[in-house]
Each structure stands twice: as C-alpha cells, then as structure tokens.
Amino acid sequence: MAIPAWFTEDRFGMFIHWGLYALPARHEWVKNRERITDEDYDRYFRHFEPDLFDPREWARSAKRAGMKYMVLTTKHHDGFCLWDSKLTDYTSMNTPIGKDLVAEFVEAVRAEGLRAGFYHSLIDWHHPDFVVDGLHPRRDDPPEEIKRLNEGRDMARYRAYLHGQVEELLTGYGTIDYLFYDFSYKDDDHHDVWNGKGKEEWGSEELLALTRGLQPEIIVNDRLAIPGDLVTPEQYQPDRPMEVDGQPVVWEACQTLNGSWGYDRDNLNVKPVDLLVRMLVDGVSKNGNMLLNVGPTGRGDFDATALATLEGIGAWMSRHQRSIYGAGPSPHRAPVDTRYTQRGNRLYLHLFTWPFGHVHLPDLAGKVEYAQFLHDASEIKYREIDPSIKAQNTGLGGQPPGTLTLSLPVVRPDV
Ligand code: FHN
Q1: Can you give the residue ranges of the Glycoside hydrolase family 29 N-terminal domain (predicted)?
Q2: For residue 18, how far is its CA from the centre of ligand 1 (angstroms)?
Q3: Which residues line ligand 1 (CB under 6 A)?
Q4: Contact between residue 100 and residue 86 where contact means Cβ atoms under 8 Å apart
Q5: Of the candidates 53, 74, 166, 54, which has an alpha carbon nearest to the alpha carbon of residue 117?
Q6: Ligand 1 pocket check: which of 74, 82, 222, 234 to mutate, most ligand atoms within 8 Å of Cβ?
Q7: Is ipTM > 0.90 here?
Q8: pLDDT tens profile 6-37
C-alpha cells in the first residue's frame, strides 16, 4: 500500500506516552524495572486523577512546535487502558478521573487541525491470559513460580482481547490516521527474542487485515512482526535513506526528549533544542520523519522542561518549516557537516557546524542561479541557506561561473 501523501508532507509528529506510570514518574517500564507487584502498582490506578489534563493544550503545544500529527498511547505494556473499553475494567473510566481520555484526545487533536494516531501495546502485563515471558515484570521469579503463573493462561484468549480492543479503538473514535503497534521487531517465525512472541501469538496477519478493513487509509507501522507501511527506527538516526530488500522505504525515527518515554521527573538527559532540530533535519535529508515524544506528568500537563524544548523547536520551525514540510533528500551532495533538504526546485543548506567564513558547494557549481542567506541571529541556532536552483538570476555578489561559495560571518554568532 502506498503511504498516504500527508505523512511525508508533514514530516514531524508528537508521540505521547501517558498512563499510570506517570505517577511514579520514573519511566514507563517502572513496573518492570522495579519489579512492582500488582497490588503495589494498583495504588496508581486508585489515585490516577490528572486534574490538569487538557488535551487541547497538548495539541496547541504540538502545533506551536511545528508538529502536524499526534500519537497517544491507548494502552502501554502495563495494560492500563486510556479509553472506555468494554473488554476490561482496567481503564481510565474506573479511576478517579473517570473519563475516556482517548476520546478527549482525538477531539482536541482534530480541533487543532492535526492528524490523530494511536499507539497500542501488543504486550500486556496485566491481562490474566498474557503468558509471562522474558520481558514480564515477573520474569525473574523462580521457574516453578512462572510455571504456576502461566497455568491456565491462554494466549488465544489474549489474542481475542487484543483484536477486540483494536476494533473498539478503530470503530469508536472516527478516522484514525496512524496506528503504532508495539512491539515485535522481527518478521520471522522464530519469535522475537525479547518477549518470546511473534506473529502467531499476536495473530498479526489477521490484526493487520482487521486494522485496514476498519480504517482503509490508516498508516500502520512495522512492529507486528510483519511488514507495515513504514519502518520505525527506535531512538536512532539512520545514517542513510532506509531501504528494505534494496528498495527505499518511508521511515520515521521515534525519539524522546530525555531518554524516557514516560514522564521522568528527574529529566536527566534532556536533549538540547539544537540537537533535536538537527535530528529532524537529518531525518528529512534522508527521507524520514521524526516522532518526538512528550511524557505528560501524573497531573496530565507537560512539565516546564518539555514546554521550553517545544517552544525552542517552534521558534526554529517558524522560520524554517519550508525546509521540512514537503521536503526530502536532495540529489546534490552536501558538504561535510551540513545537510541538504530539498523541496521542488528549492534546496536548503543546513549548517550543522559553523564553517570558518565560507562554505563551498562544488556540487552546485553552475546550477544555482540564486542563493539567499537567511539569518536572524537573535532567533535561530544556526543558519539556513536557501539557494533557489531556479529563480530570478540575482546571483551572489557576482559569483564567477562554475562555483558557489557562500561567504558567512567568520564566527558563528552567539548561540
Ligand atoms: O517498550 C516500548 C517503550 O516503552 C516505548 O513505548 C517504545 C516507543 O517506540 N517502544 C518500546 C521499546 O521499543
């Protein structure tokens, strides 16, 4: 299936990981990493009351940052459901907030003119039929205990639950643009080494058919252990345009602000705006999207660090979005420490390091009729050069034919 054009036009989306794990505020795998028992973890279920939840404000923040689509965790690995599922009581309806959070999210995202996507975990550590495996919070229990736990567990029943909940999500909330399943990374019969389950256990072929049958235009990712519509590198930037079997593929790198998908109150590894912008540019230069994650707090808002980061990205995007939206790789070879993104007959040169005075673009020699050096030191971290390959021939101070050397301020302005 050809991926709908909006995806490579929009280029930049917001991932949102939110759920009970926002209360301990130490990572979405906190139940697993800290071996929290079900009864201890249940405290978060009993006290989940995000009084500052305002999905319209989430969507406004995303829009101001230049993001065009949003993907919310409907259920993460802990099994907690953010919508009014009729297949379980383990939902936001039965917590103090008592709301269908997915419904409010979708309504708000659409109201801000953005596209709505869902993340949905195949893994479910809460469901009584989900077989304890190598990733389960109880994985370190003695083998006899794991055997006892798995007695009577029936993955066929879990599979029916999984498919039934996907049907709820794809029939109850209007048009959904993107479904990010999570996770089995490998398309094989040998079961993903991490969670010991593969396409058979998930019923992936049937689940994909169900997904497309209910939402014919939906984009589906590649984590059902069978091919999807795109490839989703996890927290890394590919070093070249991605291919599968020698054929170029659409891809989207999902990235965190600070190393944690769920809210991490310590925010130990916050990425600077400059780096995140360069990751976005780098991706587009290789025909990729970026899905940048925010983990709302246990009260439902974005913390100050996330807001400041989004504002910084938005400041850059407000001036350079035309080098991102609808742009992609250029056939021209970019000089070292730079990236080209190209949109139609406009080429954008992104300087990742500040050259000492000049940048030489031999690959463009004789091809550029007009180059415009856009800068506003007060607002952006680095520069965008916007040499239009086909435009009114105004030149750059009488460049001799056959070369293009951009003369830049010798020292990068204070950033
Ligand atoms: O285990 C999850 C993780 O918590 C997070 O949801 C990421 C997002 O791509 N996916 C899995 C790890 O790859």
Answers
A1: 3-320
A2: 12
A3: 28-29, 182-183, 234, 254, 261
A4: no
A5: 74
A6: 234
A7: yes
A8: 999 999 999 999 999 999 999 999 999 999 99
